[in-house]
Amino acid sequence: MDKQQLLSEISQMAQSGQVSHADVMSAFSGAPTAAHEIASSKNLSIAEILYYIGGAIVFLGIIVLCYQNWDNFSSFLRIFITLGSSIASLIVAVLLNRYENLKKPSDAFFLLFGMLAPLGVGVTFKEAGFDLSSNVLWVAIYAMLTAVFFGIFWYFKQKVILLFFSIAFATALFHYLIAWLVGESLSGSDYSKVWEYQILVIGLVYMLVGRYLAVTAQKALVGVLYGFGSLFFLGSALALGGWQPNQNAFWELIYPLVVFGVIFLSVYAKSKAFLVFGTIFLIGYILKLTGEYFTSGLGWPLALVLAGLLIMLVGYYAVRINRKYLIA
Amino acid sequence: MINKQKLPLYIALAVPVLMIILVAAFIYMPGAGKHPKYNFLYMTGNSVYDYGYGSTGYQVSGGRLIYTPPAQTSAYPPVPQTGPVNFYLYDVAKGQATEVTLAQAQMYTLDPTNSSPDGYFVQQGNSGGGDFLFGGGGGDYNSWYIKGNNRAVKLNLKLTGSAYSNFKFLGWEE
Question: What is the value of ipTM here, to two decimals?
Answer without folding.
Answer: 0.76
